[in-house]
Amino acid sequence: MNIHSLTAFFKWCSIINIALFVLSAILVIGASDFVYSTQGQMFHLPREAFDVAIYALLGLYKIVILVFNLVPYVALRIIGSE
């Protein structure tokens, strides 16, 4: 693998993961009652605990996207431009 193919790989990983993050955030914000009712059937959590868990999960997912997708992409872009 060369730098250009790795750069393209991380670019598409970033695009896909950011799209999934935005879709998840919109779903949680726009249809939070629906998400709680469907997930509440599997996991018996009070609403406040569910809100904290979703907030923590989205925050962790955002950090994972930054660390494992965007940072390698930017580093490869910097290396590739030299």
Describe the structure.
By secondary structure, the chain is mainly alpha-helical. The protein is 88% helix and 0% strand. The model has no long low-confidence stretch (mean pLDDT 94).
Uncertain spans, ≥5 residues at pLDDT below 50?
Answer: none
Question: In sequence order, what are the helices and strands, one letter per element?
Answer: HHH
Helicity range: over 70%
> What is the count of β-strands?
0
Characterize the main sheet.
Answer: none
Alpha carbon gyration radius: 17 Å
Helical segment tally? 3
Approximate shape:
elongated
Gap between N and C termini: 18 Å
Strand content: under 5%
Structural class: mainly alpha
* Whole-number mean pLDDT: 94
Task: Looking at this protein, list some descriptive labels.
82 residues, mainly alpha, 3 helices, 88% helix, 0% strand
How would you summarize this macromolecular structure in one to three sentences?
The protein is mainly α. The chain has 3 helices and no strands.
Break the fold down into its secondary structure elements and pairings.
Layout: H1 3-30, H2 32-40, H3 47-81
Helix pairs in contact: 1-3
